[in-house]
Amino acid sequence: MLLKFSDGDSRFVTIDDTNLNVRNNEELLKSILAGYVKNRELINRIDDAQRYNEIRTQSSRQVWEDFQNLVSDPNSIYTTKNYYRDIKIINVAILSQNVATIDFQAEITNPTRTEVTYKKYRSAIEYDFRKQSNTYADIMKNPTGFIVDKYRVTQILDEKGEQ
């Protein structure tokens, strides 16, 4: 059984057979892709470690190691004090069986929200679905076997060429 929960406002649950082909369920696939990007790009200083653990279960070894290096780099946004980033997904486009792009807007603030800026980005993801042989806890975090094999982010400039 695979349970799909709605967002917090709708309060409904859909139960599907586990033989579900996630690639054929566009809404579920887009939700998984958007969730990966949001978990990876959000910086709130509250549950970052928990979200990063979920990213680990959904990433290939190379993608995970690259992310670990980025998060631990002293010059990274992830280690910058008083830097918070909320993520709003704008669009998810499935380009092929294993490639998608996700457009998102980052709201960047300080703790008191006296400084707020917005930037738009596009994530390009190469992904697959693989049978899991990890721990029970990892399987519960990633029951579909969704794995990101490549991940890139570029900033989207506005029509004036500004960031």
Q: What would you say this structure looks like, in words?
A:
This protein is α+β, with helices and mostly antiparallel strands. It has a single domain, classed as Nuclear Transport Factor 2, Chain: A. Helix content is 27%, strand content 34%. The protein contains 4 helices and 6 strands; from the N terminus they run ββαααβββαβ. The strands form 2 sheets. Strands 3-4-5-6 form a 4-stranded antiparallel beta sheet, covered by helices on one side. The protein has a two-stranded antiparallel sheet with strand order 1-2. The longest helix is centred in the first third of the chain and has 16 residues. It starts with a strand and ends in a 7-residue tail after the last strand. The model has no long low-confidence stretch (mean pLDDT 88).
Q: What form results from the Cα inertia axes?
A: globular
> Kindly state the mean pLDDT as a whole number?
88
Query: What Rg is obtained from the alpha carbons, in whole angstroms?
Result: 17 Å
Query: How many helices does DSSP assign?
Result: 4
- Give the CA-CA distance, first to last residue: 45 Å
Count of separate structural domains: 1
Q: Secondary-structure blueprint of this entry?
A:
Blueprint lengths: L1 E4 L7 E4 L9 H16 L6 H10 L3 H12 L11 E11 L4 E11 L6 E14 L6 H6 L4 E11 L7
Antiparallel strand pairs: 1-2, 3-4, 4-5, 5-6
